[in-house]
Design goal:
Blueprint lengths: L2 E2 L7 E12 L2 E12 L3 E5 L6 H9 L4 E8 L2 E2 L5 H6 L2 E4 L11 H7 L5 E2 L11 H7 L1 H4 L11 H13 L5 E5 L7 H16 L3 E6 L2 H7 L2 E6 L2 E7 H9 L8
Parallel strand pairs: 1-8, 4-10, 4-11, 7-9, 9-10
Antiparallel strand pairs: 2-3, 2-5, 5-6, 11-12
Helix pairs in contact: 3-6
This protein binds adenosine-5'-triphosphate.
């Protein structure tokens, strides 16, 4: 069975407009707007606490309260439940790497399995088998029976990405893949993102590290105190930072 999705004729996968989000009484996001088109890697940057993770959570329906427009593949998901959003082909890799620690690598992958998907024109979207993912992530291929709880932070990060890809997403929201992992894994993460892009998977990436973001991203947005303060090409952002903008911190 394969799910057929409307929209995307314009190449616009994700459109966020005037998104506001709250934790309890605390108003965290203020009229955030951003877009991701088919085939793009887009970085959402900003300092600690700027609201990057909250933006991804608000898109996925994982904050207590939100208001605004969130369109994915032409469908309004602003009030949809997180599980339904994931079923539409929007993958989410949270910062806190939610793997099942008692399950093995292979069992963790099975948890993420979803049917293949098609674009609006009928062509197959990028799809992934366990064998392909193990070829793609050699670290995981070396430990198929290892319980998730006995893996390093970087390996758990890769497993979380691989499990998300088992859902054959059109677009992946990736929260700070370079944070807290060894430099060699950071390098692998960058290569992985570029290969995903080659396979036609679009990515919205939260990132504080400009060096990492520039390696992989086409465009960037910068958040400050819950508002978008920059939208433009990676090069324009780098030029502004060199000129002393200091919006990002790293
Ligand atoms: N569950 C929560 N309850 C209340 N406030 C929260 C919660 N999670 C985050 N916040 C607050 O929301 C603001 C934005 O946090 P968020 O995690 O989105 O920032 P970030 O840009 O992703 O930074 P970081 O890299 O530190 O995660 C911060 O002031 C943070 O303290």
């Amino acid at each position: 069975m394969s799910a057929q999705m409307p929209g995307a004729a314009t190449g616009l996968l994700l459109q966020v407009d005037q998104l506001n989000a709250w934790y309890g009484e605390a108003h965290i996001l203020f009229d955030v707007g951003l877009e991701v088109r088919r085939g793009e890697v887009v970085a959402l940057m900003g300092r600690n606490g700027a609201g990057k993770s909250t933006t991804l959570k608000a898109i996925m329906g994982l904050v207590e309260r939100r208001k605004g427009v969130v369109q994915f593949m032409g469908q309004n998901i602003a009030q949809a439940d997180a599980w339904r959003i994931a079923r539409l082909g929007l993958g989410y890799v949270p910062e806190e790497r939610r793997i099942f620690s008692a399950l093995t690598v292979l069992e963790n992958l099975e948890v993420g399995r979803q049917p293949p998907r098609r674009w609006a024109d009928g062509s197959l979207a990028s799809q992934w088998s366990v064998d392909e993912l193990l070829a793609f992530f050699p670290n995981l291929a070396a430990m198929p029976q290892r319980p998730g709880g006995q893996m390093s932070g970087g390996e758990q990060q890769m497993l979380t990405v691989a499990r998300t890809l088992m859902g054959n997403p059109y677009l992946v929201l990736l929260d700070e893949p370079s944070e807290g992992v060894a430099p060699v894994i950071v390098e692998q993460m960058a290569q992985m993102i570029l290969q995903l892009k080659q396979r036609g998977v679009s990515i919205l990436l939260c990132e504080q590290n400009l060096h990492f973001a520039r390696l992989v991203s086409d465009r960037a947005y910068v958040l400050e105190k819950g508002t978008i303060q920059f939208a433009g090409s990676m090069q324009a952002l780098i030029d502004e930072e060199r000129a002393g903008a200091k919006r990002i911190g790293v």
